[in-house]
Write a structure and sequence with these properties.
2 domains; Factor 8-associated a isoform 2; 10 helices; mainly alpha; Serine Threonine Protein Phosphatase 5, Tetratricopeptide repeat; TPR-like_helical_dom_sf
């Protein structure tokens, strides 16, 4: 409780610096730096959710300063901290309403949006994959599909990475026993490979042909 009280006092003290005062402009850059420092200290104390809130405040400051890279980084840090906090709660089997997971989802979503606005689809896709992997590890493959799909959509300029993302989609569909959906994804993968003429490294075997054969084999095994 003492740590919580100290956090709230320091958080409010920094927040008060952002209030507009007569003939005085708020020092947003200083506040952002202080929120960042407080986040680091809280993370070291294993107060992950509080550290995440500080990173969110830092992201708002960076947005005010029109510093998109700083905003994206702060949002990403907040997302990862909320996610780590959710994993800790699950490991302890603590009761909850997935509030930290929901906060993480929101932060990832905003970070992806900022990276897209910065014309950095590779970074945006990597965050989608990161979130998809986390959800799959948490036994939520159905929810992970959306994020793997988003990653594949953002990887149009990197077809091999897009294929890997589509493979993750198919895996999640198999885990949810959506075998028709998985086969549909494998078929889409094959068509994409044929259109681009992709081949397995060091061979003349088309990637699409290998993918389709593999997909049929797995579907037969699982059925």
């Amino acid at each position: 409780m003492a740590a919580e009280g100290d956090f709230l006092a320091r958080y409010r003290a920094v927040s008060n610096k952002l209030k507009k005062r007569f003939l005085r402009k708020p020092n947003v850059a200083e506040a952002s730096e202080q929120f960042g420092q407080l986040a680091k200290e809280l993370k070291q104390q294993d107060c992950l959710q509080y550290a995440a809130f500080c990173n969110l405040a830092m992201a708002r400051c960076e947005q005010t300063l029109f510093n998109a890279p700083g905003e994206a980084l702060a949002l990403t840090d907040a997302a990862r901290l909320f996610l780590s906090s959710e994993k800790e709660n699950r490991a302890l089997q603590a009761p909850g309403f997935d509030e930290h997971l929901q906060a993480a989802l929101n932060c990832y979503s905003f970070a992806v949006k900022v990276f897209i606005e910065m014309n950095q689809p590779v970074m945006a896709a990597s965050l989608c994959l990161e979130l998809g992997n986390a959800l799959k590890e948490m036994n939520r493959p159905g929810e992970a599909v959306v994020h793997y799909q988003r990653a594949a959509e953002l990887q149009t300029q990197t077809p091999i990475e897009a294929l890997l993302s589509m493979g993750e989609i198919a895996t999640c569909k198999i885990l949810t026993r959506d075998y028709d959906g998985a086969l549909s994804i494998f078929t889409e993968t094959q068509l994409m490979c044929q259109e681009r003429g992709l081949q397995l490294p060091g061979t003349s075997t088309p990637v699409g042909e290998a993918c389709l054969k593999s997909s049929h084999m797995w579907i037969k095994i699982l059925n």
